[in-house]
Amino acid sequence: MKRLIWRCNIIPARQPGYLKQMFFHWRYEQARDLSISLLKDWLVKYKFKDWNTHSNSGQPVSADEKIKRAQEIAEALSDHKKWHSHGRMIGIKTLIDELRLKIEDYTGNPELKSAIRKYSDLLLDCVQTRNMGYMFHTRRYMKPMPESTGEINGSS
Fold it and tell me: H helices of the chain, where?
């Protein structure tokens, strides 16, 4: 209890906006941790579902190894010191060479490349012309999401 009182007394002495700054830092950490958790689960369930043997040794891949590898990849992708941006694309060469991901490179398939580019352009155009923050899209579901205002409980 003494520690809680001491901390409450010291916070007002900080610069203006200290609590707001701490709140945004806390929100960033929560979002980062959630992203790592979701990506790790997705990698194990979908990306690694057919990964049954190690490519170098031919040894079987255990569920724990899939989880460990997914954690490594998720943490690497969330390292802002390395990527310096949240919204910037990470190229296929980087994903293959640095993160050691097995990815089908469709750039040599003009028909598939064109179809993916048209689809991407259509979604991007839709998001930009309607001032959406982003589009949430799966095989069975599509929902436009409003752009975030950065406000907390309606106040900026």
Answer: 2-10, 18-42, 63-77, 80-83, 92-97, 110-129
In 3D, which of 47, 35, 38 has the Cα closest to residue 78?
A: 35
Whether the full predicted model's pTM is greater than 0.85, yes or no, is no
- HSE-up of residue 35 (Cα within 13 Å, Cβ side): 14
- List per-residue pLDDT tens for the chain, 156 residues long: 445 444 455 555 556 677 777 777 778 788 888 889 999 999 999 999 999 999 889 999 999 999 999 999 999 988 888 887 766 788 899 999 999 999 988 889 999 999 999 988 988 888 888 877 777 777 787 776 666 544 444 444
CA–CA separation, 100 vs 19, rounded Å? 40
What DSSP assignment string belongs to 132-148? EEEEEE-SS-EEEEEPP
Query: Residue with structure tokens 């398939």?
Result: 109
Task: Scan for tokens 């943490």, then name that residue.
Answer: 75
DSSP assigned state of 103: -
d(CA 139, CA 125) in angstroms, rounded, equals 20
